[in-house]
């Protein structure tokens, strides 16, 4: 548990150093966001297939650290480009970095939770994933604090090199988890953990469309990304209008991240495990969508920067502190191939596909003359649908877990 928490801390420390840098680029280049997200989607499709191909040929002890170190090499390349290429190339470097960071953000997190779901059982997940997520939140606090302090004191591109150190630490913790834990209920290292995953580069995606359970999780992610996109686009527009200095915007966004992670930890320490235990996974997954529906109504009535900040902070804290651990429990009752490959497709490709569609929907609504408040009211019914899907998929996960306990079989055999 402590190793997993330390792994999550390291991943999120590195990511939150980069997050504010990426979000500031979106504020500066907000007119092209939907185009950038289109590029992100197609890059993500390629990345997921490449990752699945590697996972079919190497054990998790190889492909998990390899994924992290690939991103470290990319960061060093971006730093060199910013230092040695002419100033005129900076806008295009920013755009490539934005696309890369959007891929990185989902990939390292989904690989982390895939490994964690592979090491712990469903019952362990309900008890421990909230605590493990605390490590991730502490990493987010550390990364946000470092960025908020350094963004106005050092060149922005120096943050890229700083983020490499925690990502390398994450690779070490991932290797340690692999060495010390087997799969599922097997606590000791097992031969199964040292084998490559079954299937090929496309099998994880095929499994999603063949499984109503995985399709339900994919629908949950797609609706979640719609809500996230509405809030993200509104944030980019309102922050750009309120602040003119890039360093000031980066520091402001980092402070938002800091508050989000502090609230997230409070949820994870005091409430997450208790809520899952008392009310079950289904109800836990439903809380955030219901709150978001109310938040969209509030934004429709009071479409200001501070209304957006309050809704964004509450949404993200609930999403990371409650919905994220509960959603990861859903993957403890699927096969190993689905934990890594199908999960990567859902958490990465479906997520970014949702971003793509949602981004163009937002741009289309804005082109028709709808203001931020009106767009928020249009989005409220989608949040209600998200709540319905969340409750349904949570119930299916609980039923799968009960059947596994009764049958004592491999999760991949449970329909």
Structure commentary:
The protein has 415 residues and is mainly α. 83% of the residues lie in helices and 0% in strands. It has helices at residues 2-28, 33-55, 60-84, 90-119, 122-150, 158-162, 164-180, 203-210, 212-242, 246-301, 305-329, 336-367, 372-407. The longest helix has 56 residues, at 246-301.
Short description:
The protein is mainly alpha-helical and 415 residues long.
Q: List unreliable stretches of 5+ residues.
A: 185-189
How many independent structural domains? 1
Question: Could you tell me the strand content as a percent range?
Answer: under 5%
Figure out the total of helices. Answer: 13
Structural class: mainly alpha
Blueprint (SSEs and pairs):
Elements: H1 2-28, H2 33-55, H3 60-84, H4 90-119, H5 122-150, H6 158-162, H7 164-180, H8 203-210, H9 212-242, H10 246-301, H11 305-329, H12 336-367, H13 372-407
Brief descriptors of the model:
Growth Hormone, Chain: A; globular; 415 residues; mainly alpha; 0% strand; 13 helices
């Amino acid at each position: 548990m402590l190793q997993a928490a330390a792994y999550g801390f390291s991943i999120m420390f590195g990511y939150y150093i980069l997050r504010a840098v990426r979000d500031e680029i979106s504020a500066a280049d907000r007119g092209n966001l939907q185009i950038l997200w289109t590029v992100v989607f197609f890059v993500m499709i390629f990345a997921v297939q490449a990752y699945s191909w590697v996972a079919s040929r190497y054990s998790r002890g190889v492909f998990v650290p390899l994924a992290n170190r690939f991103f470290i090499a990319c960061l060093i390349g971006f730093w060199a480009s910013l230092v040695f290429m002419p100033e005129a190339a900076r806008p295009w470097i920013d755009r490539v970095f934005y696309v890369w960071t959007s891929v990185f953000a989902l990939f390292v997190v989904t690989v982390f939770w895939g490994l964690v779901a592979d090491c712990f059982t469903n019952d362990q997940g309900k008890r421990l994933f909230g605590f493990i997520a605390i490590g991730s939140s502490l990493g987010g606090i550390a990364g946000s604090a470092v960025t908020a302090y350094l963004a106005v004191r050092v060149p922005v591109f120096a943050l890229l090199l700083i983020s490499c150190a925690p990502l390398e630490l994450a690779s070490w913790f991932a290797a340690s988890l692999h060495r010390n834990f087997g799969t599922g209920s097997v606590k000791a290292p097992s031969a199964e953990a040292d084998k490559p995953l079954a299937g090929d580069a496309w099998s994880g995606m095929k499994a999603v469309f063949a499984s109503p359970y995985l399709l339900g999780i994919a629908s949950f992610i797609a609706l979640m990304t719609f809500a996230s996109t509405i809030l993200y686009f509104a944030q980019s527009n309102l922050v750009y209008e309120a602040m003119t200095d890039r360093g000031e915007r980066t520091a402001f966004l980092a402070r938002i991240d800091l508050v989000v992670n502090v609230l997230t930890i409070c949820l994870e320490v005091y409430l997450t495990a208790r809520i899952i235990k008392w009310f079950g996974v289904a109800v836990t997954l439903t809380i955030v969508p219901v709150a978001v529906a109310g938040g969209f109504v509030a934004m429709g009535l009071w479409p200001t920067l501070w209304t957006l900040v309050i809704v964004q902070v509450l949404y993200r804290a609930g999403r990371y502190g409650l919905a994220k651990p509960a959603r990861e429990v859903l993957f403890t009752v699927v096969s190993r191939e689905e934990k890594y490959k199908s999960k990567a497709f859902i958490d990465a490709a479906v997520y970014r596909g949702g971003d793509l569609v949602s981004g163009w929907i937002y741009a289309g609504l804005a082109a028709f003359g709808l203001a931020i408040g009106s767009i928020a009211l249009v989005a409220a019914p989608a949040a209600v649908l998200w709540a319905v899907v969340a409750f349904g998929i949570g119930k299916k996960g609980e039923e799968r877990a009960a059947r596994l306990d009764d049958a004592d079989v491999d999760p991949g055999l449970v329909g």
